[in-house]
Every structure is written in C-alpha cells, then in structure tokens.
Amino acid sequence: MERPSPPGSDPPPTGRITRGTTGLNRLRRSDRWTAHHPDIVRALSDVPQSALAVDVGYGARPDTTLEWAGWLRRTAPTVRVVGLEIDPARVVPGRDGVEFGLGGFELAGLRPNVIRAFNVLRQYDEAEVPQAWATMTARLRPGGRLIEGTCDEVGRRCCWVLLGPEGPISLTLAWAPGHTERPSDLAERLPKALIHRNVPGEKIHEMLALADECWDHAAGFATYGHRIRWRHAAALLAERTDGVARAPRRPLRDNVLTLPWASVAPRT
Q1: Beta strands at 114-118 and 255-260: parallel, antiparallel or unpaired
Q2: What is the pLDDT of residues 150-198, one digit of tens each?
Q3: Mean pLDDT computed over 120-138
Q4: What is the largest CA-CA distance in the chain?
Q5: What Å distances lie between residue 213 and 112, 151, 258, CA to CA?
Q6: Do 27 and 81 form a contact (C-beta atoms < 8 A)?
Q7: What is the pLDDT of residues 13-61, one digit of tens each?
Q8: Can you tell me the distance from the alpha carbon of 82 to that of 65, in angstroms, rounded to the nearest whole number?
Q9: What's the sign of the alpha-carbon dihedral 234, 235, 236, 237?
Q10: Pick from 61, 110, 249, 262: CA 20 to 30 A from residue 1's CA?
C-alpha cells in the first residue's frame, strides 16, 4: 500500500507553506455536494480496489479532513483518506481511520481517485494555478477528479472547480441562503483562476450579472424564502445558459449553482 511521506523525507513537497487557517465544518457545503455528485460517486465506487482520497493542505488542524472522510464513507465505506500538509509542524498522527502525512501538489507520491485542495491556491499567484492543477491531476487514477476551491472563514460562501486529467470541467458556487443577498456576492470567494477575472469583458463577470438578473426576476417568490426563490432563479438561468445544472429534486440546505467551465473560463 502506498504511504504518504513522513516529515523529513525526500524529495521535498511541491508548493509552499500558507497560512493554514481552518475551522470546524468550514467545508460543509462542498462536502454535501461531493457526497452526491455523480463524477465523485463513480470515481470512488467504480474501482477494483478500495478508493483513495487525498486532502491537500488541511491546515493547522485536521478537522475538515476528518469531516470529509465521514461524507466520503457514505458513498464508499472502505475509502482510504489521507490528509497532506506541506508544513511538517502540522502533520499529526492518524485518527478515526484517516492518515496524515507530509506532502504538497505532488501528493507524496500517492495516486488517488479523488483529490481536494481548498483554500490553498487562493494564496498563490494566478499564473501558478495551471501548473498546480496539472501536477495534481497527473497523479489521478483513471476516472479520478480534483476539487479545488475557496470559501470564507465560516463556510457560508464557497466556490470550487471540478477537474479531471483533461482540465477544468465545471465551476460550482454554494452559499447559505439566509446570509447572501445576491449570487454575485460569491465573487469575493471565486477560485484563484477566476477571482481576478470578475471584470467587464470576462465570462465569469457576465455569468454573475445574469445570475443576479434571474434572482431579481424571481423576487415574487421571496415570501417563500431564499431557497424557493433561488430554485426559480436557477431554473430561469438554466433556460438562458447551456449546460447549467438544474437543482435536484431532493431538498437542499444550500443555494447551489454549477456551471460548465466553458461558460466561465478566462477569455485572455
């Protein structure tokens, strides 16, 4: 069985130490989405042996990795979960069936089915993002997926990119219905690849403006609550934009918008 590198091993991890801020339940919106997304379910389930999931850059405490493991086990009860940190001082002993080790974008030599890297690339330059994506996705097993994103300090607003070895597939925005006035409020939490592109002439700027317009059109449903209003706004947005995922029939705790990468990718 592949093992993550112990502190002090060679070669050194790829990347650099970042702030490491974290918090209990901070990534809950991404966790809920991950547990139901068909690409992730397939990546964890359609494998001949137990699946492997790697969490890159879990921060000063391993809370979010442990929580992620609980969600993944709903889909794949035997999944092996490994949390990696580039700072040797943050590497902790394994607990609750989760392993921890030293590593960065090279994934400590592991070949996972699913990778998550949250609130890591936000602290890098935009020009560094493609290489980090390529380094991680090159380590994926066939059919594997990478989830790379950003959220606010308490996890009320969250955005992430889903990637495969071929590159970005989709962008998802998820937010607490009662704590966000308009979809465009998510702009401040866009992944690093897009956060500087929210300007006129770029696709992400146009998409957020259209989402706000649909939200305004659905104002008549506000009396039923933010979730019902967003469901109608999202349906209108899906009519106006190819490839926008419609809300599932099951009840949702979060307002969620998933867009094909082609509809938001940088133009320059």
Answers
A1: unpaired
A2: 999 999 999 999 999 999 999 999 999 988 999 999 999 999 999 999 9
A3: 96
A4: 60
A5: 40, 24, 17
A6: no
A7: 998 888 778 889 899 999 999 998 999 999 999 887 789 999 999 999 9
A8: 8
A9: positive
A10: 61
Residue 67 parent element (H or E): helix 63-75
Find residue 147's DSSP bridge partners: 116, 162
CA dist., res. 167 & res. 49, Å (int): 25
Instruction: Label the pairing between strands 255-260 and 167-175.
Output: antiparallel
Sheet holding 255-260, edge to edge: 98-102, 80-85, 52-56, 114-118, 145-151, 157-164, 167-175, 255-260
Query: What pTM did the predictor assign?
Result: 0.92
- Pairing between strand 145-151 and 80-85? unpaired
CATH 3.30.390 fits 28-263, yes or no: no
CA 140 – CA 164 distance, rounded (Å)? 8
Helix (H) / strand (E) containing 217 = helix 203-217
What are the sequence ranges of the domains in the chain? 28-263
- Span between the terminal Cα atoms of the chain, in Å: 43
Whole-number Å distance between alpha carbons of 268 and 262:
13
Encoded amino acid at 30, one letter: S
Six-digit token string for 171 = 């962008």
Length of the chain: 268
Query: What is the rounded CA–CA span in Å between residue 18 and residue 15?
Result: 9
- Alpha carbons 220 and 234: distance in angstroms, whole number: 14
Phi, psi of 59, rounded to the nearest 5 degrees: 100, -160
